[in-house]
Amino acid sequence: MRAWIVWSTGLLAYVVAVLDRTTMGVSGLDAAKRFAASPGVLSTFVVLQVIVYAAAQIPAGVLLDRFGSKVMILSGGTLMVIGQLSLAFTESLPTAIAARAVVGLGDAFTFISVLRLVPCWFTVRQIPLVTQLTGISGQLGQVLSAVPFLGLLIGSGWTTAYTSVAALGVLSLVLTLLLVKDTPSGAVVRRPVSGLRETLGGVKTVWMRPGTRLGFFTHMGTQFSVTVFALMWGVPYLTVAQNLSRSAAGTLLIVSVVSAIVSGVVIGILTGRHPHRRSWLVLGIIASNALMWTVVLAMPSPTPHWLLAVLVVVISVGGPGSMVGFDFARTFNPQSTLGTAQGAVNMGGFLASLLVMQAIGVIVGAAGGYSFGSFRLAWSVQYVVWAVAAVGILVTRKKARRTIGDIEESRYLLEFFSDTELEPVDGPRRSSIAPEPGTSGPAVPSPDATH
User: Does some domain include residue 435?
Assistant: First the structure.
């Protein structure tokens, strides 16, 4: 029971982070009036957030390994409260942009810190499902920004709405301070303080582990399409190129959230029961995304509404699919460097999202502005990312299998990764680890799991 209390408190911090992340998107028109900003300047808020979030992942991961989850969740929450309060009371555009950058930095601290709690508090077979539940439940923050926050914004005004969000952040900070512990024993596996050279060397060591890069390419190939769609270009594409009303486009975004929740539970169960098939699941998700976009982009005229709904459902699976990347990071890294590994993985999808987001804007502008043809051309840039990610997964998967030769890692790497039986020189052999009763394969506790 204590594990679920700790996780739920951390999850609340992540929900608040997602709420803080999405408030500007909901209040864009109000921000334009308040700060006398053009649409181009307003887009800076979104792009800046993604840049800060992605750039902070490795530093946040290093700090997480040094100080532990509780300190990082409190630090991230404090930064977001400061940023939201600044937005609540300022009317200066430069101050508002700076405040948004602070919110993005705090957001970067939060997610990987909550994820790190999971292997410390749950059994190895629970970890994949709880990891998925963390990712999908956090999206409740988007619902909070779209309903109660928007209601306050319309009914009570800018300052009240943003102050209320900051107050919820303060509540989360208090609960984190009272209820969250890094481990059941209270002890934290921390990396020793080191200089810049040693820190950079440690980051390089984590990156050179094939499992870390496998997680990076997994996150890259699965997450970016739905992120770009939901964060910036989905609604313009649906309304201008596909002739949907704003309400219909909003409904499809709700369908996206529901699809992510349902598929996340399924993916969590599958990866928990069949960890040695995770890479195939990821490749299947990437292939399905590419296939559905190919079908839609091949249409010579606006796509039937039912087919757009199918597209949204399929690409939404990519969000939960990206969480498998963190499972790879956990499998192939000791707990002392898990934060750095998770930060590296988290960079994959957001770097890809940023590049695709910018590329679509450039292509649409060069093609003459918003139109069916310009969007059709612009969305095609996704195939480059899918190709890079798929090749990266195949290459790093092969390299990760070779690490099974390490005696210390062979027992859990064989269980958690290998897609095929390994055969030594003297003939076939099977894992010496007996399967648990009622399961189809061996079950080995991860070295970094605390029960």
Answer: no
